[in-house]
Write the structure tokens for this entry.
Amino acid sequence: MSDGVRRLGLGTAQFGLAYGVTNTRGQVAHDEMAAILSLARGSGMAVIDTAHEYGESEAALGTFHDVTSGFRIITKTPSLGPERIDAEQVSSVRRALDNSRRTLRRDRLDGLMVHNGQALLLPGGDRIIALMQDAKDRGFVAAVGVSVFEPADLEAILAIFVPDLVQIPLNLLDQRFVGNGRIAALAAKGIEIHVRSVFLQGLLLAEPKSLPGSLAHARASLQAVRRFCEGSRFTAMEACLHFVLALSEIRHVIVGVTCADELAAIVAAAQERPRDRPDFASLAVDDLDIIAPARWRVPSVAWGNVGTVRSK
């Protein structure tokens, strides 16, 4: 088993939702979930990432308790805000945590992250910090942290709260958290780093000519990625994975799939022996309309397929 595969984590948004801009399969069926989880365990993966807001994901994982018992399970709070965090929102987080523990059939969860970590900066954010610390002290969770989108938000959060876990977006186009030594600084504080969006919801594995008109502005960046891969003799999937796996500070790379074949392709790519590291930094872009899926003007399911072999 390679170190790259051990560092993969299974994202499960697709277990509860038809998630992903390139997902045409929809929500994963029960039998396919079983195949995915079996392959993940057999491959040596050890972390499952889920969330209260991933539809039926937690409930689905709970039905596979025997299979998931050897995994660390990290979940997330409901989204908070938008203007302040009041007593009712604090109560909703407490209820959601109790529900997650019950649904996942775990007395003690391995991790709890604030789904939109920037909410801790709102008035009342200290209430959520106190709630999470209390849950940790009482043994309900082993580690607490935040999922964030913007480097500036993370820096502001670290001024008021030092999390055990941080989840950040990172991929060939979105390299914002690599700059200025941010990842190294997190690791130096002993913070466990998980990265998501390594395939940018499958966009980085799609053929540039297949993009819908509303994402035409991303075509040039994707074409640059294809030229880079051809010159480096990487497939698009290998380039996406080896860019993040080469960063030793990253503990886990969260990948979401809609079928076992997709996970098998990711595992195979992660097992490939890394080649000389090319200049991945040349691919970085700062256009949020490209690297921030929340700004995309497309339905949540549009075209293609997440993580497919045919999308190399």
